[in-house]
């Protein structure tokens, strides 16, 4: 690695089916290692769920605003997931890695592959559920998705898991404390 590269922060891509626990796990790492590790807040055209605030979980916008932002090349990657647009703001990502902070991207497999193609040094981590039954149980337990949204998420879960072979690390989030420790071990081997 050159000294120029060593000054830059790493990009950590965390993917996995909806409801598997990506947000809980990413928050654990970011809270513990901030300000050296930061969370990339994505932009989305999906409606906020109960309790979600603009600029906190996501930057919320309309589909046409999102399309305008695509034209302006505002996203390092973007994808249509479960029928809505989601994108990683390019400026936040570049500013942070250029300033030596590590950035965590909680994004789907399409986005993960796009970032990895552009930034082959990005660290790819996939979170697996212990079973599909448990995954459905977690999505229901979160109590934030309609029955239709739940069905879409369960269908997409199988497709996402098929792509896990493209990821360098695969963790099973069964016992949450163990999954946190496993993820932390991966982070600590880089940061
Ligand atoms: P994602 O970001 O992958 O969609 P979340 O982080 O929102 O998933 O987690 C979905 C739900 O599952 C949340 O209610 C969360 O508290 C719960 N959860 C996460 N990990 C576990 C675990 N290991 N065991 C039981 N429940 C979990
Ligand atoms: P949710 O609607 O449950 O918050 O997220 C749905 C899916 O969108 C998850 O798989 C999540 O990782 C993914 N996602 C969130 N932000 C982005 C993003 O900026 N880009 C891409 N490609 N996927 C994202």
**Which ligands accompany this protein?**
adenosine-5'-diphosphate, guanosine-5'-monophosphate
Category from helices, strands and their pairing = alpha/beta
Summarize the main sheet.
Answer: 5 strands, parallel
What count of helical segments does DSSP give?
8
> Could you give me the name of the CATH homologous superfamily?
P-loop containing nucleotide triphosphate hydrolases
Per CATH, the architecture is: 3-Layer(aba) Sandwich
Mean pLDDT: 94
> How would you describe the shape?
globular
Might you state the CATH topology name?
Rossmann fold
The CATH first-level class comes to: Alpha Beta
* Secondary-structure element string: HEHEEEHEEHEHEHHEH
- Give helix % range: 40-55%
Radius of gyration: 16 Å
Low-confidence residue ranges = none
- Count of separate structural domains: 1
> How do the strands of the widest beta sheet line up side by side?
2-7-1-8-9
Task: Measure the end-to-end span.
Answer: 14 Å
Strand element count: 9
Strand content: 15-25%
Question: What can you see in these coordinates?
Answer:
The chain has 191 residues and is α/β, with parallel strands linked by helices. The protein has a single domain (3-188), classed as 3-Layer(aba) Sandwich (Rossmann fold). Helix content is 45%, strand content 21%. It has helices spanning 3-7, 22-33, 63-71, 90-98, 109-118, 132-142, 147-162, 176-188, and strands at 11-15, 37-39, 43-44, 59-60, 75-81, 84-89, 102-106, 123-128, 169-172. Strands 2-7-1-8-9 form a five-stranded parallel β-sheet, with helices on both faces. It has a four-stranded mixed β-sheet with strand order 4-3-6-5. The longest helix is centred in the last third of the chain and has 16 residues, at 147-162. The protein starts with a helix and ends with a helix. The model has no long low-confidence stretch (mean pLDDT 94). The structure holds adenosine-5'-diphosphate and guanosine-5'-monophosphate (5GP).
């Amino acid at each position: 690695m050159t000294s120029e590269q060593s000054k830059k922060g790493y990009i950590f891509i965390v993917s996995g089916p909806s409801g598997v626990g990506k947000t809980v796990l990413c928050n654990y790492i970011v809270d513990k290692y901030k300000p050296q590790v930061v969370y990339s807040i994505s932009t989305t055209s999906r409606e906020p769920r109960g309790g979600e605030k603009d600029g906190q979980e996501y930057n919320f916008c309309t589909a046409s605003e999102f399309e305008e932002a695509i034209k302006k090349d505002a996203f390092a990657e973007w994808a249509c997931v479960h029928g809505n647009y989601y994108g990683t703001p390019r400026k936040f990502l570049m500013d942070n890695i250029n300033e030596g902070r590590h950035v965590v991207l909680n994004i789907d497999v399409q986005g993960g592959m796009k970032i990895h193609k552009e930034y082959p040094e990005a660290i790819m981590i996939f979170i697996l559920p212990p079973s599909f039954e448990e995954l459905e149980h977690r999505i229901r337990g979160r109590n934030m998705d309609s029955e239709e949204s739940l069905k879409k998420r369960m269908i997409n879960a199988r497709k996402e898991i098929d792509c896990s072979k493209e990821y360098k690390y695969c963790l099973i989030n069964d016992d949450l404390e163990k999954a946190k420790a496993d993820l932390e071990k991966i982070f600590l081997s880089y940061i």
